[in-house]
Amino acid sequence: MHNPRPLRPLTPAKLVRKTQAKHKRLFCGLMCLTATLSAGILAALYMVAQPGLARISPWLDQALRALLCAAVLIFLILPCVQLIVQLSTGKALPLTKELRAMTIKFFLPLMELVGRAFRLSKDKVRHAFIHTNNALVRAEGNVYTPENILVLAPHCLQNHRCVFRLTHNINNCRGCGNCAVAGLKHLAEVYDVHVALATGGSIARRLVLERRPKCLIAVACERDLTSGIQDVAPLPVLGIFNTRPFGPCLDTDVAVPEVEAALRALLGLPPLEQEPFGHA
Predict the structure, then answer these.
(1) Is the CB of residue 250 less than 8 Å from the CB of residue 161?
(2) How far apart are CA 50 and CA 9, in angstroms?
(3) Strand order of the sheet with strand 215-220?
(4) 154-169: per-residue pLDDT in tens?
């Protein structure tokens, strides 16, 4: 009997790509399901109102039917088709920016409700959303100058024992290496971009208003990344998850190579020889 060839173990980079593809499939499935349920609700409402509309005016009934069909096609079916095609090809399609804005503002809140009905946690839905959002931003292929990029990170990256205040000026970091802030400061110096630590959403929004960047790289947990992307939409944001080995908001960490990979992509620079384990 022929012995099957043993499977080749996946490299870390391949594992990351496999995980990213899994999250994108989940997001596409949830988006299509949400669109189907939304179309069903609209159809049910129309069927309830149709007899009364027909008695008032047959023309009104036909006009409303045509309007609903057009709305379902434009706002539900076409966005789902475009998202699937774009994530499959990795190339920007017409109205990519508008698709991203519609996904953030309209679909995501509904998808969280649908996900809850299928016992999917909000963090799982948000995780899939961040991966999909990053793919859409990268697919746009825009290149930015350093002064138009802002890197935002939470202050909880700073070691809680550190006595230096970094929330207003990351250059106060002494580079001891006890937290990831030293690595972010190094990236700021090498790529000449502005890196800031924010103590909360209001401070982060104020920094965006003050500096008026054309693109953001944000480091945070799933909840804060999602709310931040919603707050600044349609501004493009590449989201990078932090890790929380000691629980939320205490001595969190981030893979600095992921931030560097995102920076190089936005600056139009080729990727480094050793591919960092980043989020697409």
Answers:
(1) no
(2) 59
(3) 194-198, 149-154, 215-220, 237-241
(4) 999 998 888 888 887 8
